[in-house]
Amino acid sequence: MAEGTTLRVEQSGGVLTLTLDRPKANAFDLPLVDALVEALKRAEAETTVRCVVLTGAGRVFSAGQDVTAFAQGDGPISFRHHLERTYNRLILRLRTLEKPVVGAINGAAAGAGLGVALATDVRIASASARFVFGFTGIGLTADSGTSLMLPLLIGLARASEMAFTNTPLSAEQALVYGLINRVVPDDELPAAAAELAASLAAGPTRALGLTKRAFHHAWLSSLPEVLDYEAHMQEIAGRTEDHREGVKAFLGKRTPSYKGA
Known about the structure:
Helices cover about 45% and strands about 15% of the residues. By secondary structure, it is an alpha/beta fold. The chain has a domain at about 5-185: 2-enoyl-CoA Hydratase, Chain A, domain 1, CATH 3.90.226.10. Strands 1-2-3-5-7-10 form a 6-stranded mixed beta sheet, sandwiched between helices. It has a 4-stranded mixed beta sheet with strand order 4-6-8-9. Helix 1 (about 30-45) links the parallel strand 2 (about 15-20) and strand 3 (about 50-55). Helix 1 (about 30-45) runs parallel beside helix 3 (about 85-95), helix 2 packs antiparallel against helix 10 and helix 5 packs across helix 6. The longest helix is centred in the N-terminal third of the chain and has 16 residues, at about 30-45.
C-alpha cells in the first residue's frame, strides 16, 4: 500500500484482495473511492486477476460516506455531482466487472458502505457484522444502488422497514433474509473468504463472467438509470432542513429533531 493511500491492494495467485483501510470506520472520501475504482480497472484488465475480494480493515466494513465533508465549505454541495463522481462510478464498476467479487463483510456496513457491500457477487459476513440503511439517519434518501439492490435481495416490505426505521440488521437476520450467503465467526472470515475466492479463481472464470453479465442483463439492466434517479432524489433530500439537522445531530452526537422540511 502506497504511503497516504487508504486502500490496501494485495494479490495472491489469481485473487486480488482490496481492503478498505481508512481509520476508524473506513468511511469513504474521494481518494478512497478513486483508489477503489482504479483497482477494479486493474482487476478488469489484468488476466492474472481471476477473482476479487473486497473487505475492510479493523472491526468495520465501511460506515459509508464521510459526512464531515458535508459540513465543510462555504455553501451546499451538489449531491447529484457528488454521486456521479463517486458511488455511481464505483457501483457500476463492481457490477460490470466480469470476474467474481467476494464481499468479506467484517463489521458494520452502513449507507454507501451497504451499497458497496450489496454490489459484490457473493457475501460472507462475520458474526458481528451489521447492515444499516443509514441514509435516513441524516435526513437523506437511498443512493449507491440501494434502492434497487436492497428490495431485490430481501423484498420491498423488509427493505422499507430497514430504510424507514434505520434499525441495524444483524448478520444472522441478514442470512435469513437472503442479504448474505454465509455467516462465520469473526476470526474465521479472512480464511473463509480466501478459500471461496481461491475456488472461484480456479474455476472457468470466462464462463463465470458471462454468467454475471447474463444475471446483470436479466435483473440489473436498469442500474444506470436507477443510480441517476437516486442522484436526483438525493439532490432534493440534501437541500432539506432535515438533512442539515441530521448532519448537525450526527456530528454533535445527539438525537436529531426532524420537522419534515
